[in-house]
Prior knowledge:
Layout: E1 29-32, E2 36-37, H1 49-62, E3 68-73, E4 76-81, H2 83-91, E5 96-101, H3 106-119, H4 125-137, H5 143-150, H6 154-161, H7 168-175, H8 181-187, H9 193-206, H10 210-223, H11 236-249, E6 253-258, E7 261-266, H12 271-282
Amino acid sequence: MTADLRRPTGLGRGLAALIPQRDEPAASVELPIAAISHNPYQPRKRFEQNALNELADSIAEHGVLQPILVTPSADGYRLIAGERRLRAAQIAGLDRIPALVRSADEGAQLAWALIENLQRSDLNPLEEAQAFRRLVDDFGLTHDEVGSRVGRSRSAVANTLRLLDLDQRVQVALADGQITEGHARALAGLPDAARQAEALSEVVSGGLSVRQTEELVRRSIKSTPTARGSKPARPADLERVERGLREALATKVTLSTSRKGGKITIEYYTQEELERLYERLTGGAA
Length: 286
């Protein structure tokens, strides 16, 4: 199902800007917790138990100070935003919880949950990347549109999405906090999973900084022998230019070189995307 998220919605301006106010009461209501199902589009996958317990203790003493956000569903209500508050309220033994009831399609549910967590800095980089990927794949947004809705630049969105191409072992280390996003981006410069995993082991065991990791990757690429008869490794500068073009145009770009020059291949998949690329490259409408 593709939701219409392409119209301007103010997704970068805060959760309040996402909630329709017209013809809907602003006051919260008390809802049975048992009637609220969790949001299947919740981008946050990890919830720190100690932090939940501390929030539960606060809720037990003071109550839930900020209502959660829900939308009506066939069997009650579905959570849109406020996952931590709902979980902590359950731990605290509450039967009911204050909530704002709003109508929302699937795209809005994902976007609202994503925005709330981004603004609270609750998502790790991989969770952000997975949420961005859903906005792109499931709801048809371009990198530009995702960026405008979450208050990020297009290049930042593209860089975050690239984390999903890392070796699984690197992704786990990033999610567990063994390495930072900067380390992960540096390791992404290695062309295959085995070399990424090998470099990861050295980074973790040696406690390398991001700069040291970048230097490690450069040395690894430079020292890799070219197999006899195989195609020579592409120059790092060519990879950098190709990556920059992909980010600038938000589509797949391939560079190939020859003795007399080279070729740039820019791919597009719809007429709308072709027109967008034309405007980006020429500065005028097609």
